[in-house]
Write a structure and sequence with these properties.
The protein is mainly alpha-helical. The protein has one domain: Hypothetical protein, domain 2 (Endonuclease III, domain 1, Orthogonal Bundle). 56% of the residues lie in helices and 5% in strands. It has 8 helices and 2 strands. A two-stranded antiparallel ribbon has the order 1-2.
């Protein structure tokens, strides 16, 4: 039986928090969210608090067997690849927040020729249309503190 509630993280403020939200979505996809949330403090520590420069230089084997980590090679590989993508976006835009802001503004100015944020998020590994919609919400509309929502209800 699925849990009755789910938690929407706070809107990320740092580059590491952006990668953390992406990693959370990846670990929860097709897995038990309660287990992920229980292990999250250990996962966070094992992934160097989602320090982008540290995570992007590691291999899958560096994370396998670490305390709390869900030993799914494909998910770990995606998080490492996404750390590299974050690094590249930061290099181009200055920060992940600036990338989000630029993407949103560029799409508003010319929606026919510029991807929206959901489409851009799908360029991350293991992020599809449903999870990119969730990332779009967290990156642009989430509150400054985590929110608990009931399953079946859209967030406020």
């Amino acid at each position: 039986m699925p849990p009755k509630t789910y938690t929407i993280p706070a809107k990320p403020k740092t580059d590491a928090q952006f990668l953390e939200v992406i990693a959370l979505v990846i670990f929860i996809m097709r897995f038990n969210g309660e287990i992920v949330h229980k292990r999250w403090p250990l996962i966070t520590k094992s992934f160097y608090n989602f320090n982008i420069d540290k995570v992007r230089t590691k291999t899958v084997e560096d994370f396998l067997g670490k305390p709390g980590v869900i030993n799914n090679k494909a998910k770990i590989k995606a998080i490492i690849a996404n750390a590299q993508r974050c690094h590249d976006l930061i290099k181009k835009h200055g920060s992940m927040k600036q990338w989000v802001d630029t993407t949103v503004q560029t799409h508003k100015k010319d929606p026919i020729f510029n991807q929206n944020l959901r489409e851009q998020c799908q360029e991350f590994e293991h992020i599809g249309s449903m999870t990119s919609e969730w990332l779009d919400y967290v990156f642009t509309k989430a509150k400054n503190k985590p929110m608990v929502c009931k399953h079946g209800e859209k967030p406020p």
